[in-house]
Write a structure and sequence with these properties.
With about 550 residues, the protein is of the alpha/beta class. It folds into three domains: about 10-30 and about 435-545, OB fold (Dihydrolipoamide Acetyltransferase, E2P), CATH 2.40.50; about 45-305, inorganic pyrophosphatase (n-terminal core); about 340-425, Diaminopimelate Epimerase, Chain A, domain 1. Helices cover about 35% and strands about 20% of the residues. The strands form five sheets. The chain has a seven-stranded mixed beta sheet with strand order 16-17-21-22-20-19-18. Strands 3-2-4-5-6 form a five-stranded parallel beta sheet, with helices on both faces. The longest helix has 27 residues, at about 305-330. The radius of gyration is 26 Å and the shape is globular. It starts with 7 loop residues before the first strand and ends with a helix.
């Protein structure tokens, strides 16, 4: 028998269909099941809980003069800036905010300082960034520019030159009040800190709190919902769960409503947004053309018709996919994959795609991948993608600096440190093939229409922190069907249940063709298939492994005579 490659960790010891949903939510870390299943019962946190919120409100209610808004280079940044823009127009309709957009995928305002200072503005709003940009905010302050920061990232430095509204500004010391909706404990720099505010909120969520504090008549919960999903914020937070539910079920922004209806092939749920809308928005953020980069923002504020905007977004995404494939093909031959990690070097013209390319190699080899380009004569910069969390480990090493998410971040490393950094990574005890968490190990006859319906009907529940339920099965000599058309699909059938894998490569198709009579380990998600008026459960293959097991009914004569 071949060595198994798929490592499974069932979250539930057994499958009880009648209690499955509740039991699964418990093992995912949901403490209040009733509230999670009934988000109408969840209360939003008051914006008054945010430090400096009252000061920021007074500033926008007052004489703002010439005001500028920074658009951060991703979907959360565009949504945050759009809300800030619409709030400015609501309270100061005579004022047209000046928009500052990055040339690349930068964040904050540091790189935009020359343009901001030249614009002769009186006030600047920095949404989704800026909390720790002390030097930049000091320079703006010295030029007489008032700064409002509406951010959700960890505060690394105290910023006294701006009005910073950030959930990480809400640290408290026990004993804690009993009437707070949500208290969050986190370890920061080795110290356990308690926050009154939801620190899993997105930048757009913080700006929405600002809108509530201003008593705005507009609703922005749909923008918060899509930004929470695109920014990989945890849905274990009751407040985030409520934002996603309210925003996706009752969208009010015409552009978001159109995108939900026409771009979410996987449904109007977190998965549909993550695979349907977020990649289109992030493709624009990588564009070198400034008008294209602003298109998502302009569509949100109603300056571009939704249909026209989506058409351009899809064209940009398609072009970038082609360019990413070319970069992947170009780098593949010279890439050293013999170590625990992969370190490769790209060209400056590919800097916008480094993250996407790194993700391709990370997925193919299941190893942490670092793709670097020359920042200057002394420093490399680039992107890190990893199957495991590495950000904190890297930053603690002092050999490089990572910013972003734990497994997907930007990285800078001194050229003089690169060899030491590579040896450091190679010396780590890395389990780059973590166990696949499945809801339960089951048999084909456990896949019922009712169970599949539970998974499908509740798809608005599944997202970061509460993943879509997966199930592990061993299929014993299933019937194998291969359909080759524009794309190849494989269908396995056992005990009347169909197991489907879409978009199969030629190599995979050949593997399945040679698997007749063998066992196949599969990890599946569940769906429903309607055909000829009949609705049947269907299993979608997410992972698989063909295992060369002998037929248990045959006598192994070698063992017999031994």
């Amino acid at each position: 028998m071949e060595e198994r490659k798929i490592k499974i960790r069932p979250l539930l010891d057994s499958l009880n269909e009648s209690t499955f949903l509740q039991e699964y939510l418990v093992v995912c870390g949901i403490t209040d099941i009733d509230a999670y299943l009934n988000p109408d019962s969840i209360e939003y946190q008051s914006p008054d809980m945010y430090k400096n919120m009252d000061v920021a409100v007074d500033m926008l209610h007052g004489d703002i003069g010439r005001i500028g808004i920074v658009i951060d280079s991703d979907m959360d940044g565009a949504c945050s800036a759009a809300i800030a823009y619409m709030l400015c127009k609501e309270y100061h309709p005579e004022v047209e905010p000046i928009i500052f957009a990055h040339t690349g995928k930068q964040h904050g305002c540091t790189d935009l300082l020359p343009d901001i200072l030249a614009a002769n503005i009186d006030m600047l709003i920095i949404p989704d960034a800026g909390s720790s940009e002390v030097d930049a905010c000091r320079e703006l302050y010295e030029h007489g520019i008032k700064v409002i920061v509406l951010d959700h990232h960890i505060i690394e430095k105290e910023n006294r030159h701006a009005v910073v509204v950030n959930p990480y500004n809400s640290a408290i010391i026990p004993p804690m009040p009993d009437d707070q909706l949500e208290l969050v404990e986190r370890v920061y720099n080795g110290v356990k800190v308690t926050y009154t505010c939801n620190t899993d909120i997105s930048g757009t969520g913080v700006v929405e709190k600002f809108a509530c504090a201003l008593d705005s008549t507009q609703s922005f919960k749909d923008l918060v919902a899509v930004s929470l999903i695109s920014d990989i914020c945890s849905l274990r937070s009751p407040e985030n769960r409520k934002y996603v539910y309210d925003g996706l079920t009752n969208p009010t922004n015409p552009f978001i409503k159109y995108c939900l209806e026409h771009c979410c092939n996987r449904g109007v749920n977190p998965e549909g947004v993550a695979f349907g809308i977020a990649p289109l928005a992030n493709a624009l953020a990588r564009s070198d053309d400034q008008s294209t980069k602003r298109l998502f923002f302009d569509a949100l504020i109603g300056k571009i018709e939704p249909e026209a905007a989506v058409k351009v977004m899809k064209a940009v995404k398609s072009k970038q996919d082609y360019q990413v494939k070319n970069v992947v093909d170009k780098l593949s031959d010279g890439l050293d994959t013999s170590h625990k990690v992969i370190i490769g070097f790209g060209e400056p013209e590919n800097k916008s795609y480094l993250g996407l390319v790194a993700n391709k190699f990370c997925g193919k080899y299941n190893k942490p991948t670092f793709l670097l380009i020359e920042l200057n004569s002394t420093t490399w910069s680039g992107s890190m993608r990893s199957p495991i969390d590495l950000l904190e480990i890297i930053n603690e090493s002092g050999l490089a600096k990572c910013q972003g998410h734990d497994a997907a971040a930007g990285i800078t490393v001194k050229k003089s440190n690169l060899k030491r950094f590579a040896r450091f990574l190679d010396g780590l005890d890395l389990d780059v093939e973590p166990d696949i968490e499945v809801a339960a190990q089951i048999e084909p006859n456990n896949i019922t229409r009712n169970l599949a319906n539970l998974c499908v009907e509740n798809n608005i529940l599944w997202g970061q922190g509460v993943p879509k339920p997966l199930f592990h099965l061993t299929l014993l000599s299933p019937q194998i069907y291969i359909y080759r058309n524009r794309s190849t699909t494989v269908k396995l059938v056992q005990d009347g249940i169909e197991f489907i894998k879409f978009f199969v490569s030629n190599e995979e198709a050949n593997q399945f063709e040679s698997a007749q009579g063998k066992s196949i380990e599969v990890v599946v998600s569940l769906g429903l298939n309607e055909y000829n008026g009949q609705i049947k459960p269907q299993a979608i293959i997410e992972r698989y492994e063909i295992v060369d097991k002998p037929n248990e009914n045959e006598i192994d004569w070698s063992e017999y005579f031994n």
